[in-house]
Amino acid sequence: MKYDCIVVGAGPAGAMAAKYASQNGARTLLIEEHASIGSPVQCTGLISTKALFECEVAEGNFVLSKIRGAFVYSPCGEEVCVRGNDIKAYVIDRKIFDRVLVENAIDKGVDVLVKTRFTGMNAGKISVVSNGEKKEIEGNVIIGADGIQSTVGRAAALPRCEKFLSGIQFEAPYIPKDPEYVEIFTGNEIAPGFFGWAVPFCGMARIGLAKNPGLPARHYLEKLLNHPIVSSRYGGGRTEHVVGGIPLGPPRKTTTDRVMLVGDAAGQVKPTSGGGIYMGAVCAKIAGEVAARASHVECGLSEYEKRWRSAVGRELDIGMLIHKSIGKLSDENLNEFVAFLNKPEIRELMTEYGDMDHPSVFIQKLIMSKNKMQLIKLFGIAFKTLF
Ligand SMILES: Cc1cc2nc3c(=O)[nH]c(=O)nc-3n(C[C@H](O)[C@H](O)[C@H](O)COP(=O)(O)OP(=O)(O)OC[C@H]3O[C@@H](n4cnc5c(N)ncnc54)[C@H](O)[C@@H]3O)c2cc1C
Q1: Any idea which of 65-69, 83-87, 183-187, 195-199 has the lowest mean pLDDT?
Q2: What is the dihedral of CA 18, 19, 23, 27, to 10 degrees?
Q3: What is the pTM of this model?
Q4: Which residues line ligand 1 (CB under 6 A)?
Q5: Of the residues 137, 277, 279, 286, which should be mutated to test ligand 1's pocket, given the most ligand atoms within 8 Å of the CB?
């Protein structure tokens, strides 16, 4: 077997990278270690309308519900409604979604091998265990779309992401305040450094949290379930358990002369929300194009590094600063912050400029608004790093 491009990992980033490599003229193979694409799921499945557009799929049977906005709760229970004028996001079934993306790649000529695990590489070849059998496959360019643990990244001696959050989630019956709004719970007792959530769909919700490294996520999940708002809406029982990590802060290098990393493997994840599908798709398309051009000796892989950083690097940097700043706030500061967001003029700004994929737009508007000084006071030393 000989390919111009081998993509390791058939998640959203791998499927998009393979599709773009193939449609740009590279003979492409996509390998996946699991027998079934999209399984096991490690995701809440909340994706913006823009992410769907970026993945080049129309609304399909993977859409479980539509989301207009969010209710954000401060540690003391104050609610701020982040209202969208129209549908902003979808709750999706990741198993079906991932399969649709892989089918689209197959339609563009990509070969797919499941139950095939990448184990290493040497000059011009990768080693795999395919259906229990050790094999070698020839490939010029290797795209590591193999998620947070990235065996490809390790084999290529590429550096790791800056930080890893731990996440936990399950599904259960839930009566949300409004089925078109996700619920976000803040506070160091519930999710230190990040937040908890209830994402509604079809009379159920995906209830979970992500947090800084430290005590096990399970410990905080029980606290989230005892939160007065969550416990009044949670219908009991737990199914579809998810435990997973979220990489934040891309490594300083994501390419070698033969390897490119994309998606979670490259830390292309929004540090403000932990969402990785949108950024992963944007960067995977660039990786696929560069792989095809490199296989025709039209460019080197460093072009990918330049292009993806110019597309989303600034957004990721600003997101990381926001993540670090908010992560430093005490519960008292978080209460003040939510009260600040609840001011009518700030809510108007959020409705107009809030963008879950590009929070820097809202932050820039805030900085330019007359509320700048209050914001600086609120965030103190932590937030000053943004200016
Ligand atoms: C609790 C939780 C909730 C989340 N919620 C959201 C959300 O609501 N919205 C959002 O946008 N993002 C969310 N994310 C993040 C999102 O799941 C990831 O960013 C996204 O799945 C990354 O896509 P990917 O293709 O880079 O990697 P993955 O989806 O992780 O795919 C990697 C693939 O590579 C395969 N693989 C790994 N190693 C090998 C190997 N050696 N050989 C062959 N195959 C291999 C894996 O089996 C897997 O199929 C969440 C994450 C967590 C943990």
Answers
A1: 83-87
A2: 30
A3: 0.94
A4: 8-14, 31-34, 42-47, 117-118, 145-147, 151, 167, 169, 208, 242, 244, 246, 263-264, 269, 274-277, 280
A5: 277
